[in-house]
Every structure is written in structure tokens, then in C-alpha cells.
Give the backbone structure.
Amino acid sequence: MTDTDPQVADDGPVRFMPQLISLDYTVRTNPVAAAFGEALADGRITGHRCPSCSLVFVPPKGFCPICTIETTSADEVVIEDRGMVTAWTVLTPIQYHGQQERKDYALASILLVGADGTVGQQRLIDIPLDEIRPGLMVEAVWAAPEDRVADDRGYGLGTAIDGWKATGEPDAPASEYEGHTL
Ligand SMILES: [Zn+2]
């Protein structure tokens, strides 16, 4: 009997599947996302300010989800690359083939200064997990310019920003972020 014998899986211990698989796919990029990605490559985070309700959404989607009206490059504003943590999750990596993570790490939702919505799934770096709290001020750690390249998943903040580190500023008051906590 070998590890690849299908009978092993019936009543034996759980084992890693010996076969490797791959899936190739491409995300088609729309002009709004492409402009966002180009700005990121230049070290700028951009959003769209709705001309009706004045809320700023980042990344821009080309419309205001509240007013359901179109927004364009004329509504583009630059957002600061710093903000406050509103919520976070600590992840414990499970080990699988190709897994690079070895230690627990945190992904956070961050309300950037100048934006009215949070950006999610942002990696916190060099911050002890037990020191993460709502209102903690963080700033972007930008990738080297030559490494700010969109991948097959499109133009997310992660294509240009490696993570977020604490700024050392006093925490933001709850009144600034309480409407954005989960
Ligand atoms: Zn609006």
C-alpha cells in the first residue's frame, strides 16, 4: 500500500494530498481601478469624493454607493497614507505546501485620514498583537517603487503597500472612528 492508494483515505489518518494543482485566471481591470493602481505606483492613495453627499470612498469604484451616482476622475482626491485601526483579526497560519507564514499576524480595517470608509485586510507590521486597539494610528510602509506592480488579482493597496506600522501618535478619539467599527 502506498500514500497514493485511495484506500488509505477511507479510515486512516488525514494526509496531505500528494498532487499539486494550479489555476490560472486574470481579473479584467476597469479604467477607475487602473487609475487607482497608477497612482499607487506613484505613492499616492486616491479616492473619489461624491459630488452630492461629499463622502470620500477609497478605493474609488466610479460611483457613490450611497447616492448611486457616477463619480469620475474629476472627483478624485488624494488620501493620506495614514489612518486609524477600527477593527482587526489575528490569524494563525496553518501549514500547507508553499505556506510562507510561520507566526500569528494581524489584518486590520483602517480608516484613512481623508476617507469616509475603511480599507480592509491590511497587514499590520512591527506591532505586538496585544497592543493593537481601536484608534491606533498607523502609516503605510510602501514597497520599493520597482515592486509596486499590479498582479493578476488587480490593483489593491497590497500591490504597493507592504503593511502598516504604528506612527507613535496619540490614539484617535473614538468619535472619529466609532461609526466604522464592526
Ligand atoms: Zn454620494
